[in-house]
Amino acid sequence: MTETKMAADSRTGRETTVETTKGESTEHTREEWTDYEFGDEAVLSVDDLNVYYGEERAIKDVSMDIPEESVTALIGPSGCGKSTFLRSLNRMNDRIKSARVEGSVEFDGQDIYQEGVDLVELRKRIGMVFQSPNPFPKSIRENVAYGPRKHGDISRGLAARLLGRDEKDAEDELVERTLRQAALWEEVEDRLADNALGLSGGQQQRLCIARCLAVDPEVILMDEPASALDPIATAKIEDLIEELAEEYTVVVVTHNMQQAARISDQTAVFLTGGELVEYDDTEKIFENPESQRVEDYVTGKFG
Amino acid sequence: MAREEFRVALADLRRAVVEMGELVLDRLELALSALTEGDDDRAEAVIEGDEEINRCYLDIEADCIDLFALEQPVAGDLRFVAASFKITTDLERVGDLATNLARYALSSRPGTFPELDVSGIGRAAIEMLEDALAAYEGEDAAACRAVAERDDDVDALCQRASERLVRDLLERDPDPDAWELEGLLDDVASVLLTIRDLERVGDHAVNVAARTLYVLEGDPELIY
């Protein structure tokens, strides 16, 4: 049995169609559901983004702004394109040969996909933390200091301010400060010379966050940062994310909907086909979403 | 459809709330008939039965807390569990109001004020609660709004009855000996409190409808 409901949208004049066939909804996304309005400045402004892997389109016409100093969660079922979207925010997809990007991502007033963008500089300002912790097989100290040492000649940011003085204690200060920011200092302060691989998974992940913070980014992208961790380590990462949002803009992909609900200020829901279906305050998404497909997804009726 | 057991638990919750509502309605009707017919046995039965209603309330509350803790409902499911939790509080209060009516039945004489249609007010309030529960059971948003609209009518009936009572007292024989003063005072107090309590039944019915509408449309328009 197929049931079709038509409703005119007074704001955009567009019509939305909901067809229900044997309980499977094929509702079309309405623009206003994804047009999230927030008071602050947008740090990242994504416009009409499409990402293709060869012939296959992984991200479909996505436009969204990401507000500064807040946590934006990206959720959706496996294969919905949320990680692809996250990676497109600092051009990590460039590493994948078959990937092709259309549309624009504006960061600090500039399209990051225009020619001549310095990718090293871009990824320093928009850092990334991955699903499984991937510290370098070096000492804890070297993991944190690696980026600033490498970028030592860059003439702005925390590293330059501290390391530019060319003092050994400046690096000590930087290491302590970033490890404190990553809520790891007290656990490692007397073994900074130990190999980072000897840390627990949760500690390794916080070290990776410290490594990301050490180069003084503005945006931190996190791809399932706690999915490989136990509940205690997860709670520490979640607390950390909320603290980081006071100074940084955090965009986090998570499979764990409760986690998105706990830590994020706004939530974007991607559904299969790389479509952004709804983007709103996290409370709104989890209490009273507009889209029936989002409702079905967050309540576990499918996905 | 995923989360089958959770779906079953939600259906069980809905059934438990409806059953509690039916129990409360039964008690309310029994109390009203005890009051209008002066039947002390029925009044006693209502008072004794309040504990059963309180038990239902606590059981459903525990079920809701389990669902929050174990299933972490969101969106429509969250609104449904939260609303059910609130609705049982309203139903429990209506149970208390039914025991109030039963107590008035024991302390007053029926038919002292035959011109006051207490039974009619009671009928109207009970119908509002019946309709609100049916809207909750049948997920009917239009019925929720209809219940809310009828509250003004019940309020007006109560207001008119109170005024009528005052007029009636003023028009009575000015000789206090003719009144059987003590009995009359009890009757006046009971009938005023009865009117107030029936009006409150209507208010709780509106609450049930308002929470139900919030479940269905995410619309808090009736919640105040």
Description:
The complex is a heterodimer of chains A (303) and B (224). Chain A has 303 residues and is an alpha/beta fold. Chain A has 2 domains: 1-35, no CATH class; 36-298, 3-Layer(aba) Sandwich (Rossmann fold), CATH 3.40.50.300. Chain A has 12 helices and 13 strands. Chain A has helices at 31-34, 82-88, 119-125, 140-150, 158-163, 168-181, 185-188, 201-213, 231-244, 257-263, 282-287, 292-298; strands at residues 2-8, 15-21, 24-25, 42-53, 56-67, 71-75, 99-107, 110-111, 126-129, 219-223, 249-253, 266-271, 275-281. Chain A has a 6-stranded mixed β-sheet, sandwiched between helices. Residues 1-17 and 19-23 of chain A have low confidence and may be disordered. Chain B has a single domain (4-217), classed as Phosphate transport system protein phou homolog 2, domain 2 (Methane Monooxygenase Hydroxylase, Chain G, domain 1). Helices cover 83% and strands 0% of the residues of chain B. At the A-B interface, helix 10, helix 11 and helix 12 of A face helix 3 of B.
Short description:
The complex is a heterodimer of chains A (303) and B (224). Chain A is an alpha/beta fold and 303 residues long.
Question: Helices, strands, pairings?
Answer:
The complex is a heterodimer of chains A (303) and B (224).
Chain A: E1 2-8, E2 15-21, E3 24-25, H1 31-34, E4 42-53, E5 56-67, E6 71-75, H2 82-88, E7 99-107, E8 110-111, H3 119-125, E9 126-129, H4 140-150, H5 158-163, H6 168-181, H7 185-188, H8 201-213, E10 219-223, H9 231-244, E11 249-253, H10 257-263, E12 266-271, E13 275-281, H11 282-287, H12 292-298
Parallel strand pairs in A: 6-11, 6-12, 9-10, 10-11
Antiparallel strand pairs in A: 1-2, 2-3, 4-5, 4-7, 7-8, 12-13
Chain B: H1 4-37, H2 40-71, H3 75-107, H4 118-138, H5 141-170, H6 181-217
Helix pairs in contact in B: 1-2, 1-3, 1-4, 2-3, 3-6, 4-5, 4-6, 5-6
